[in-house]
Amino acid sequence: xxxxxxxxxxxxxxxxxxxxxxxxxxxxxxxxxxxxxxxxxxxxxxxxxxxxxxxxxxxxxxxxxxxxxxxxxxxxxxxxxxxxxxxxxxxxxxxxxxxxxxxxxxxxxxxxxxxxxxxxxxxxxxxxxxxxxxxxxxxxxxxxxxxxxxxxxxxxxxxxxxxxxxxxxxxxxxxxxxxxxxxxxxxxxxxxxxxxxxxxxxxxxxxxxxxxxxxxxxxxxxxxxxxxxxxxxxxxxxxxxxxxxxxxxxxxxxxxxxxxxxxxxxxxxxxxxxxxxxxxxxxxxxxxxxxxxxxxxxxxxxxxxxxxxxxxxxxxxxxxxxxxxxxxxxxxxxxxxxxxxxxxxxxxxxxxxxxxxxxxxxxxxxxxxxxxxxxxxxxxxxxxxxxxxxxxxx
Length: 394
Fold this sequence. Notes:
By secondary structure, the protein is an alpha/beta fold. The protein has 2 domains: 10-45 and 306-391, Aspartate Aminotransferase, domain 1 (Alpha-Beta Complex); 65-296, 3-Layer(aba) Sandwich (Aspartate Aminotransferase, domain 2). The chain has 15 helices and 13 strands. Strand 5 (147-148) and strand 6 (153-154) form a beta hairpin. Helix 2 (47-59) crosses helix 11, helix 2 runs antiparallel to helix 12 (298-330) and helix 3 (72-83) packs across helix 11.
């Protein structure tokens, strides 16, 4: 059996990571891997996380299981962080998951138990794990236009035109903020028009919110998901703590399913518990407990929010610096979009040949589709990137 396994396509990001590690040049720059890094090139442990972990070590008396859906204090705290008061808690079924990816997987699994013939609509482009998970589960999927390669903004007319084809019971996957891989976000007005269209078609929104706090602020980044929650009878949400709490390896995520009423909540909750049991039984607790302790403690929460804001403003500063450098070096405004994008990523739309030249001639690594991780830069490497982009003809 094991000698006849079907070869699977290599993960391009992991391949890029390996090439970067093997590159011996001292001035190499990693803009590929989707992990936040500070000016020193380190993914730091946040101050509030350190403090909560110290407290947890002292106070925790057992490593026994919590529950199939995770600790109730954690699921409530993260639910409130994402949804605020946009929807009554008795309509929200929840399940703790191994990171945001686990929440996405469980959400798609949940959809298979619901509407027969569901199609999942994915933005073009989207995070590569989205289509691979959907395909693995055997769920039909269709793309909808999202990114305008000329303006490097949202092709909103194309998006609405395509999503008019979604039928009742279909899932429309939306990025809550900081769109990966493009960095181009919907405006509040556009979120309202998306909600109008979903109400008309009966399609169900599935929001992946993995970067809350990395774009325009904690509440601002949750605008879209909260608006939809306040208006839609049904909705699925996958939330991740990897980025905004920096607990990547601790795998803290949450799946939320908004039901039409409190009466239907019970069956949804039972189904989420069943899915957790089938896939991994009990979700990991260490990172989740740390997140819960931070959110439920005024001092820790305030310190976490302050550090998160520093991270957000730092990325915005790098974006503006890069846009300014490119404007000066190219004597044009064609890269001004970088300052308008939000989150860690921007898709620059330079050619695959130029991406290759950046890597081979300048030691600058980015994904072949030209997605770059702005958080992989610092004030000293921004001019190096700008000069290299001009040198390869960008």
